[in-house]
Amino acid sequence: MCKPKTHGGIGFKRLHVFNVAMLSKQGWHLLTNPNILVAHLFKARYYPNTSFAEARLGSNPSYVWHSILTAHPAIIRGSRIQIGGGRQTVIGSAPWLPDKDNSFISSTIPANITSATIDSLMVPNQRKWDYDVVADIFNSRDRDLIFRIPLGSRWDVDTWYWLPDSKGLYTVRSCYRMLDSMLSPPCSSAWRKLWQLHVPAKVKNFLWRAMANVIPTSDNLLQRRVEVQTLCPLCHSSSESIFHILVTCHFAKSCWISSVIGFNGTCLHFDQWLEELLGRCNLDECSLAAMICWGLWLNRNNKVWKGVNGRVRSVVNVAGQSLFFWQQARKSGFFPPPVHDSLAQGSVCWEKPSSGWHKCNVDAALVRSRGLISFGAVIRSAGGDFIAAKSNTLPGRFDPREAEALGVKEALDWLKKFHFKSVVLEMDSLLVFNALHDKFDYPNGFGSIIADCRALAQSLGEVAFSFVRRSANSAAHAVARMGSSMSDSGEWSFVPPP
Ligand SMILES: [Zn+2]
Hints:
Blueprint: H1 15-32, H2 37-46, H3 63-70, H4 72-78, E1 79-82, H5 111-114, H6 131-137, H7 140-147, E2 159-162, H8 172-183, H9 189-196, H10 201-211, H11 218-223, H12 242-248, H13 250-258, H14 270-280, H15 283-306, H16 312-331, E3 358-367, E4 372-380, E5 386-395, H17 400-415, E6 422-427, H18 430-437, H19 445-460, E7 462-467, H20 474-485, E8 490-493
Parallel strand pairs: 3-6, 6-7
Antiparallel strand pairs: 1-2, 3-4, 4-5, 5-8
Helix pairs in contact: 1-3, 1-8, 9-14, 10-15, 12-13, 13-16, 15-16, 17-19
This protein binds zinc ion (ZN).
Zinc ion binds at residues 232, 234-235, 238, 244, 249.
């Protein structure tokens, strides 16, 4: 029951894990706010010469300290240092690599480098990795991870952020998920699909109980020493199990054959059969199959408790009709589903900017084969005429959202030389657009790029950010793609790129 829904459970919280996640929050405060009064008190008592990250239980700990230290491994597992100036973080002993499993370096390196700070890996007086130095010292795993760390020019201090959360902030939910994923095996796609079906919750719940084989069929009741008839109440020719009632009984078989799903008799157990069906059919067919299973179970209960004989056609038709009416009711707003349709706001076609404005469209592309990202930016005037385009590449296997944000930063940097009075910067990444409008500073690498973008935009004059669908951003997309095939950056003025 405490397993996540995607792992075959029902998603109840594991209380111990949940408790650790709550305690971690207290530890996270001590780690990230070392200047608050309570942090001073704990430091004076338990870790006077180190930081919370290296703190140990010590002798004669208080109950509170003992409890917080229970969560210490979880805090260390999820916390990372975002490099700003790199002067506070030591290469060999700090968790600064953005890797989910191991945040420490794995290369064998000389002791003088291990104890050096991270700014020694940057180009002097620049906020840029020294690619040659990093490539010389580290193995390929560490090298790839280091090049994925964006270096913002506005942050001088190295800060802690929480890796499992996209904003880099500690949340009990993200910590619980991190700890829970360590306890659960990889999830099966069948479970995921089962909980995604567009059917009433009671039907999903029934299928989950059928997969877990906890439906009160004769075989299950006999195992619990309940005296019942062993034979199937419908065909009287075989013992009753959930697989028999829902699949192999001749009544069930006729239902499947007369529906669009068809009959598959090659499996030996219900969970195998359902897994095969969920893998083979699309979401609509799977939803119908779920309703038919539910109908077959109701039909069996009607026979057992009321002595009513059902008909094949009516089971299949009622399943289809109830599904249709239920889905219609949801669509009509009777039970409005949660809508996250902010994408609908983005324009689908490119539009000219208002009079007196210029528009710069920007896009980024990941070139995984070469371990780099490429940007493209296209400037057009209020009349829609081409003014200039630029493409450039940057080494590093960044996440898509970081790549898009770096593209925006690069475009803003490039716009400086045009001295436009007012410019619209248009992108197709909603995450970056929202982050630029958000007043909040995220403490992770993504946040450091956004901070740079905001500062650049302020220095430019009047800059408005705009979000469009990908189809309205095709020019920038094409230039970014073109940049990925060139060895160096390219720039075009007055005449558009081919
Ligand atoms: Zn039967």
